Amino acid sequence: MATATHYDPDMSVLAARTRYFTDNEFGDDGGYSSRWVTLARLGPVKLGFPNTAARVRAVSRHDLHHLVTGYDTDFLGEAEVAAWELASDCRDFRAAWVLNLLAMPIGMLRNPARVRRAFARGCSSKNLYGEPFTEQLLQERLGDLRARLGVDAAANSSLTGAQRRRFRWMLAVGVLGQLAILAILGALLAGLAIGVGWLIG
Predict the structure, then answer these.
(1) Does residue 150 form part of some domain?
(2) Does some domain include residue 31?
(3) Residue 79 contacts residue 103 (beta carbons within 8 Å)
(4) Which structural domain range is residue 122 located in?
(5) How many C-beta atoms surround the C-beta of residue 174 within 10 A?
(6) Contact 17, 32 (CB under 8 A)
(7) Are 170 and 86 in contact (CB under 8 A)?
(8) Cβ neighbours of residue 73 under 8 Å, at least 6 residues apart?
């Protein structure tokens, strides 16, 4: 369920996050304790991946980024957050780098202008990957956090030549990553079909 993430700036970050979890049906803890993350459903089959400690470390900040930027949790909104995080630097959060590089091209298929704007905004603001995740952060006023990260001031930023080249490079890496995943899945499905054919033949 995708929902807008525009919450009262006078709310604490913790209160806004609690409402965000409820609005998006993420559970009481945002799904951080789940063993698996579901990406999509194909009938009764769930497609997902393990909810690793590295992913939880990144997503705890990623969820707050939805709150400060106002980007939604649908496919386009996730691509916007991905572009914003890539531009503002994911630092040593490897899970964030991988997931964001894979997410950004999806948004380019839907609305490339919005994804580019999000990347430009990220080039002129800060994110939470560069600071510890503390109780003090959660008690901060949401409006104060937005101001501290500079997300509102950077909303109308435009890309420089160097930033455009960086954007294109990251987009190319993401597309190559998606193609590699599709190739692996295709090989697995082909192997499965051959195996089933051998068993019933």
Answers:
(1) yes
(2) yes
(3) yes
(4) 13-171
(5) 23
(6) no
(7) yes
(8) 1, 2, 3, 5, 24, 66
Residue 33 belongs to a domain: yes
Number of separate domains in the chain: 1
Instruction: Compute the distance between CA of residue 178 and CA of residue 103 in angstroms, rounded to an integer.
Output: 9
Mean predicted lDDT score pLDDT of the chain:
91
Residue 24 lies in a domain: yes
**How far is the C-alpha of 46 from the C-alpha of 184, rounded, in Å?**
18
Buried b (16+ CB within 10 A) or exposed e, 120-130: bbbbbbbbbbe
Q: How far apart are CA 142 and CA 160, in angstroms?
A: 30
Which alpha helices (DSSP H) does the chain contain, by range?
13-23, 53-69, 75-88, 94-110, 112-123, 135-139, 142-149, 161-200
pTM (two decimals): 0.88
Indicate if the pLDDT at residue 61 is higher than 60.
yes
Percent of the chain's residues with pLDDT above 70: 92
